[in-house]
Amino acid sequence: MRFTPGPGVGGHCLPIDPSYLSWMVKRRTGQxxxxxxxxxxxxxxxxxxxxxxxxxxxxxxxxxxSRSKILLLGLAYKRNTSDARESPAVAVxxxxxxDGAELMIADPYVTEEMFERVGxxxxxxxxxAVAEADLVxxxxxxDTFDYELIGRVATKVLDTRHRMEGPNVEHL
Length: 172
Known about the structure:
This protein is about 40% helix and about 15% strand. It is an alpha/beta fold. Helix 3 links the parallel strand 1 (about 70-75) and strand 2 (about 100-105).
């Protein structure tokens, strides 16, 4: 199975179960399970790293995060689901709001309550929203998003899920 970097891990078990495994190994053997601890550390830092990559991408275009409009595609932790528990996309959104960005967020599956918690404006991933954004960030690669339209209309795209290609697309 091919693995590519993403914005982090989420859901009800992936962020928690490896920590339990590490705890059990240490309890039974007296030794730390460094591989799991290292993986958890990397995954925990990914949302902040994505926010930093957003800032760098905007800075190269001469736009400060605090004066930017960013379209986030997806809040769920996994494609084509509504599950946003422990979602790295939510953490990325919180970092960007704290940095002063104006967020537009498209996710056809996630409940309105999640949008309210994040602090962004809910939009459809249509041509108008894509054109309005200084940067589009693919956080959850739902199949319902029109990636051809996004690639054609967006000024810049940061694709954390490796769903798109093109001269205006950056990957993690």
